[in-house]
Amino acid sequence: MKKTRRIKIFKEFFIQLIYVSIGILIIFPILYALSVSFMENKDVLTKPINLLPPSATLDNYSIALTRTPLLRYLLNSTIVSLISTISRIIMGSMAAYAFSFYEFRGKKALFALAMATMMIPPDVLIIANYGTISKLGLINTYFGMCSIFLVSANNIFLLRQNFLSYSTSLRDAAYIDGCGTIRFFTKILIPTSSPILFTLFISSFVSVWNQYVWPMLVTKENEMRTVQVGVAMLKDRESSIFAPIMAAVIIALLPTLIIFILFQRKIVAGMMDGSVKA
């Protein structure tokens, strides 16, 4: 018994060691970027490499905020991310509700078609999408930047799987009690699905926030750039200014990090909720 217990403890310790090692590997680039953001530029490319700043300075953050209108870029990214994310949640939940509780001709084919869009690489459609947005006169507009992020097939799939865990008898009982379709959707289904909705909201927000290629293509005015494009604009062809770029990266990372910390419990609850219902 003691030998078996020791083997079990060793296995658990080894598994935890692997998890910790993977976590360190994942977070190390972020920690190094944070360290570089406080270094003087001459201390970045040295041999041996400085993992910690020899002399800390806040000048890099000052350069990042003054060389480009980074705060304006943060505002643009926030607007685009919020509009796109809210649209994804609303569209995804309504589509998932229809696919889960209604029977209509072509339902399976329509759902399969929606899921098939997940197999198409977004970059393949960039030229066609840009041509459409340009013809509609939506260049340099928030709607133009949001246009291709308003609906997510992945969100539809995940919400549909969640809604399928509800018994149809629940909806029938609600109808008998005088609860209509809209009221059942808004008063019963959505509130009880809040954990997965929070999870999808955060994942969608982070996904749109980190977009670079599309916002760069559909914006020509500097005031309409997003933060990811703004960080790239800090790069100087004539000189290497890695420290200010890392400072801008940290500033761009802060909003998503704050959102993750604030709603961490909701994310875990959403995952646990899905696993229990499955």
Structure write-up:
The protein is an all-alpha fold. The chain has one domain: MetI-like fold (Orthogonal Bundle), CATH 1.10.3720. The longest helix is centred in the N-terminal third of the chain and has 35 residues.
Which helices and strands appear, and what pairs or packs with what?
Elements: H1 2-36, H2 59-67, H3 70-101, H4 107-116, H5 126-135, H6 142-146, H7 153-164, H8 168-176, H9 181-192, H10 194-209, H11 213-217, H12 227-233, H13 242-262, H14 264-277
Q: Which properties best describe this structure?
A:
278 residues, MetI-like fold, single chain, mainly alpha, globular, disordered C terminus
Overall strand count: 0
Biggest sheet layout: none
The tally of domains stands at 1
Mean pLDDT: 84
Structural class: mainly alpha
Helix share of residues? over 70%
Per the CATH scheme, the topology name is MetI-like fold
Instruction: Categorize the overall geometry.
Output: globular
CATH A-level architecture: Orthogonal Bundle
Q: Return the string of H and E elements.
A: HHHHHHHHHHHHHH
Assign the CATH class.
Mainly Alpha
* N-to-C span: 35 Å
Radius of gyration: 24 Å
Low-pLDDT parts are 274-278
